[in-house]
Every structure is written in C-alpha cells, then in structure tokens.
Amino acid sequence: MATNTAVADEANPKQDMALQGVTCLRFCKIGKPLTVTGTIKNKDYVTVKNPVIVYTLGGGEEHKEVISCTLSHGQTKDFSFDVATGSVTAEGFATVSLELKWPDGSADATKIDNKASLRPILVSRAPNRCMVVEEGTGSWCGWCVRGIVGLREMKKAYPDRFIGIAVHTKQDPLRVENYAQWIEPAIPNYPGCLVNRDGNTRNPSPSVLSQYMLMMMQYADSEVGVTATVGTDAIDVTASVTSIVNLTGARYQLAFVITEDGVPGRQDNFYFDGNSGEMGGFESLPAKVELEYADVARGIWPNAEGTGEKSLQIPAKMTAGVANEFTYRIPLDAFDCLDLGRCKVIALLLNRDNGMIENAAECELSAEGIKTLNQQTPNPLKGGFAYDLCGRKVSPDATGVKIVNGKKKL
C-alpha cells in the first residue's frame, strides 16, 4: 500500500495545514448553537496568519470562521466556534462539514487533512446531564475539608444539576462497607473524588470542581427520574429512564444510593491556622471541628457497579420518548441513618461498557411515609440506632451524650 511519506522541508517550504481533534457534543437542541472545537496545526515552513474554516450544516449555506492567530512551523492553535442550528426543521442526525483554507484562497499541499465531518444529533428536547461527584473522605483526613466545601458550594451554585455523595472510608465511623470497598482502590490519594466515574481522580475543592462544569452543559441521551416511598419495613424506589432518541444496543444499568444530611461528627481540619489559605471558613475553625456532615453515603444497591440485578438493566432497544420504569426495594434494616427525613435517594444510570455515570436524579423520601412510620409501635428506627458525638454506633442505653434519631440525648 502506498503511503505519503513527505516531510516538511525548510529549504522547500509548502503551504500545509491540518485540522486535528475536531469534535462537538453528541446532542444539540434545535435552535441552540452547536459548539465545534478542534486544533489547527501548521505542518510546514510557510507562516500562516488568520486561517479560515469554511463549514456547512446539512449541506446548506457556507459559512466562514476566521481563526485569529499566526502560526509558524509546527505551531498549533485550538479553536472553538458556534454553528447555528435554527435552519433545521427535523430531528435526527445532521452533518457538519468543515474545511480549513488559507486566507488568500491558495491551495494546500495536503488537502486530505484539511477536512473534517461531524454527525451530531439534533433534537427538540434533551435532558441536561447531571454532574455526580463521589468523594472519598474521612473524619481522619484533615485536607478532606476541601470536599466538604466543594460539594457544598457546587450544590449551592447548581442545585438542580449537581449531586454530591460523600463516601466515608477506611477507619471512619461513618464507613459503609460495600461503597467504601469499591471507592478506596479508585481513589488512591485523599482528598479525591470521581466525576461521573470518568476514570480520573480529582481534587474535590470548589476551584477544581468548577473547572469541570462543562460536563454539566452536555446533554444526555436519556432522562432519569426517581421517587421513593417509606413503607413499614423498606423504602420502595421507582425509577424511570426515557431516551430522547431511538437507541439500539444500549447497555445501561441502574444503581441506587441513599445519602443523609445533618450527621454529627468530629472532623480533622488542616486549614485551622490559615497558613494553607482560605477554605470555606475552615481556616477560622479549630484543628478538630464538631460539625454536621452532609451527603453522607448510607449505602449503594445492588452494588457500586450496579451489576447482578437483571431487573435493573435498561432494554438494549429504547424508543424515543417512551419511559421505562423500574422498581427496587431497600430494607430499612439494610442501612443506618439518624433521620429518614434528612435522607435522599439517588438513581445512577450506569454505562455497563465503560462504567461511567450517564445521568442521575435524586429525590427526598415521602414525608407521608415517614410520618406513618414514626407513628408505629414499635418504631424500627426508634431505639435501634444511637451514635456518640464522633458518629460511632453505641447502644441506645449507653451513658453520656449521644445522638438518637437525629437529636442529642443525655
């Protein structure tokens, strides 16, 4: 097979540029701009100033985008521009064709790498992709206050598009075995977190997490909904998954998480002296802080990978707009909590091929169900769970100050 082995020659320069890494989001709402990104590289020794990208959408009118830069031999320039989609009238795949040209219209030495084509799916509606941060943390980890602040600030800024899960690990009194065993090898250094399980461990501080907000601007191919009702001995969870396009060969699985807010504990704080900078007010607090934890993971079902339950597998073929409903029962004695009224249920839509979280949703527990449970005699939650001020489980009859059903008791 013949191959082009031409190499840039400084003595015989040619006009030779290339488009590299051209991409866009998989979905775009009709009428919203489709952002295209990529890189221009000057492969030869003729300097180029302000190269031009000519593009069309669906074979329609040509548009020109001037990339302001001057590129010498070997230099590159990242670009980003918006393609208008207002002319599209039907949902489905649309072809965006791009060609990189010299500003004076002269020919390029190697035209084959001057062109690129994209096939985004244009839809009339698309669900936002929820950003899920699973943080490995512990009361013993003085730097882990970054995660406390990070999850708190992200939730404030994006209450409808951010879900934080604090997984206490190692010797922490709030450790949940099935979740901790999974996350400990995934996060080798603390503090650390996973963002939608994309395979990278990140620092959970607010400044770092905010850099990944682009993920929240992506659309998902499926929308997730979840409701949860408290019964006499279990939480009954109902989840729905609705695809916005016809899917074939999808390999999705559901998993469910319970988190609790307002859990008392004692946190090591390495920011106490202010020498490490600001961290959400922890620089003004002592080296050991009495606080109430938020987003504490109380368990994940059927397991962290969402495997082993065929009843929670999403059909390989999904029809656009048709909801698929799934139910799951979590026994009340399968997890510890102080107050069901401060618990949330999270539904994770997991991709079985790459392990990533495609989308997610959360809900509070049914207030009526909690009220009914509290009126029962005997109440399975009353007198069953008691904790000391460090969060360690103790006997309800233990002497001293303890937490019973979310309240201090002497």
* Number of helical elements: 4
Number of strands: 29
Strand portion: 35-45%
List segments where confidence is low: pLDDT < 50 over at least 5 consecutive residues.
Answer: 1-5, 377-384
Question: SS-based structural class?
Answer: mainly beta
Shape verdict: globular
Radius of gyration: 27 Å
Helix coverage percent = under 10%
Q: What kind of sheet is the major sheet?
A: 4 strands, antiparallel
Mean pLDDT: 88
Oligomeric description of these chains: single chain
Distance between the termini: 84 Å
What's the arrangement of strands in the largest beta sheet?
Answer: 6-5-10-11
What labels describe this entry?
410 residues; mainly beta; four-stranded antiparallel β-sheet
